[in-house]
Structure formats: C-alpha cells, structure tokens
Amino acid sequence: MGLLDGKRILVTGVLTDASLGFAVARLAQQEGAEVVLSGAGRGLSLTRRTARKLPAEPEVLEIDVTEPGQLAAAAATLAARWDRLDGLLHAIGFAPPSCLGNGMFAAEWSDVAVALQVSSYSLKALVAAFRPLLEAAGADAGASVVGLDFDATVAWPLYDWMGVAKAALESLSRYLAKELGPAGIRVNLVAAGPVRTMAAKSIPGFSSFEDTWADRAPLGWDVHDADVVARACVALLSDWLPKTTGEILHVDGGVHAIGS
Ligand code: NAP
C-alpha cells in the first residue's frame, strides 16, 4: 500500500531528471499516485522527453504560468480526464539574469516583475486555474498544494531578487492557506537546501552554497540528492498531515536552525 494510493496529482516544473519536480513525480508514482506533468515554452519538448524516464510515462500539459490562456486550456484538459485533483506541486521559478548575483540595484522593474510573476504570483495563478478540481477533492480528505521554497527569512549572498520572490511566495502561501482552508485545501511549502538542478546552475555563485551547506548542516547535505526533498513533498501531498496548512517545512539538513 502506497502513501498516495488513488491520488491524482499535477506536478509542474519537471524539466530534466535532476528537477525537484521529477523526484516528486517519480516518488508519487512509486507511492501509488496517478501523475500528470506540465511543462513550459522551449522546455516543453525536454519535459516530454524527461517524462519517459518516469516509472509510468505521464501525460504532459503545456502551462506557461504567465499565459492565462494556457492555464485555462490545461485546466479544461485535466477536467476532461479527472473529476478531481488531490494534489498540485508548484515547482516553478525564474528570474532574469539582472535579478541574481548583481545586488539589488542592477535590475529594473520590468525584470523584477518577471521574477515575481513567474516565481511568486504563479502559485495563485495555478491554484486559481485548478481550484474547481481541487475543491472537488472534498473537504474531508482534502486537496494538498505544495510549493518549493528557499528560506526567505534572511538575505543570502547572490540570491537577490529571487530571495524577495521567495519571501512573497512564503507570504502568499499563508494567505492562500487562509482562504482555501474552508474548502479543505491545504497549502504548504517545502524550503529545500541547495540541489543541483538547471535552475540552481543558472544562479551565479551557486557553488558557494553547495560548498558550505554540508558543513553547516547538522544532518549533512548532498546537493545531488533530490529525493530527500521529494519525500517531504509526498508526505505533504498524502493524508498524513491533514491539519497542516500555511506551513513551511524545512528540508535543509537543519541549516535554518543553526546560528553560524
Ligand atoms: P528546474 O529543474 O530548472 O525547474 C524549474 C522549472 O520552472 C522548470 O521546469 C522551468 O521550465 C519552470 N518554469 C520557469 N518559468 C516558467 C514559466 N513561465 N511557466 C511555467 N514553468 C516555468 O529547477 P528546480 O531547482 O527543480 O526548481 C523547482 C523549484 O524549486 C523552483 O521554485 C526553485 O526555486 C525551487 N528550489 C530549488 C532549489 C535548488 O537548490 N534547486 C532549492 C530550493 C527551492 P522551463 O525551463 O521550461 O521554463
């Protein structure tokens, strides 16, 4: 018996088999879930290729979160296939190069707006598009929305406007938890330590996180191990945390709790 037996879950943000979303999709299938993926833009064909590496090849929907038409079309496609959605993984982040590694004064609003729309507002856009299906999961078992975060309570080196976008994501997840709780929908984030993915590699100086994280983490840390993050996501997608919402679960080897 799997943790997610009978669950129907939409996993966004699967680009390569290194993506955090890929690790979640694989584990979700192993735990009994039926999974659909989404991909975006030029990465869509790569998402389709990556989908073939999962234990069961899932359908791939096209969702660029900045395109309301694609969100609506994907929701209609999924509604034709499923009568409810039990889980939604938001694994989406992007910031233009000016927003990362250049301090806070290099980026103009137009670039910051892209970072905030894709990395923060998109949680609201996704949930809004799939809200009828999420509500159809019922108020008892309830649907679970999980997003991926990088601890935004402090200012990190080089993370710059992406850090601000993650702070907005953290706040938004709490507001969504408040508004969607009465419909039985939980909204939580997993604040992950650094894992070497495409998005991570695009952050200048990301290796400086990688080099120090394992030393600072009481439990140690492996930047190649996405499975530890996936396990937390799957737990939140399961029925085992039924009264947990608006929460940020740290999966970082314990770094967030340590002062130096
Ligand atoms: P990834 O494999 O590069 O995944 C990022 C995903 O975001 C890609 O599939 C990308 O698709 C998608 N995306 C970007 N713009 C989009 C848009 N407009 N519409 C829809 N999708 C879009 O990297 P990842 O590290 O797994 O990132 C997943 C999440 O984990 C992100 O929120 C990231 O901030 C978070 N996170 C990562 C780490 C880490 O160290 N890796 C740590 C903490 C949190 P395209 O490339 O095709 O646009």
Question: Key terms for this structure?
Answer:
single chain, 260 residues, alpha/beta, Rossmann fold, 7-stranded parallel sheet, 8 helices, 41% helix, binds NADP nicotinamide-adenine-dinucleotide phosphate
What count of helical segments does DSSP give? 8
- For the record, the CATH class is Alpha Beta
CATH topology: Rossmann fold
The largest β sheet comes out as: 7 strands, parallel
Largest sheet: spatial strand order: 3-2-1-4-5-6-7
Structural class: alpha/beta
What radius of gyration results from the CA coordinates? 17 Å
Strand content: 5-15%
The unreliable regions are none
CATH architecture: 3-Layer(aba) Sandwich
Helix content: 40-55%
Named once each, the bound ligands are: NADP nicotinamide-adenine-dinucleotide phosphate
Topology pattern, helix = H, strand = E: EHEHEHEHEHEHHHE
Description:
The protein is an alpha/beta fold. It has a 7-stranded parallel sheet, with helices on both faces. The protein starts with 7 loop residues before the first strand and ends in a 9-residue tail after the last strand. The chain has helices at 20-30, 44-51, 68-81, 109-135, 160-180, 198-201, 206-216, 227-237; strands at 8-11, 34-39, 60-62, 87-90, 144-149, 186-192, 248-251. β1 (8-11), α1 (20-30) and β2 form a beta-alpha-beta unit. The chain has a single domain (8-252), classed as 3-Layer(aba) Sandwich (Rossmann fold). α1 packs across α8, α3 packs parallel to α4 (109-135) and α4 (109-135) packs parallel to α5. The structure holds NADP nicotinamide-adenine-dinucleotide phosphate. NADP nicotinamide-adenine-dinucleotide phosphate binds next to α1, β5 and α6. NADP nicotinamide-adenine-dinucleotide phosphate is lined by residues 13-16, 19-21, 39-41, 43, 63-66, 91-94, 118, 148-150, 192, 194-195, 197-200.
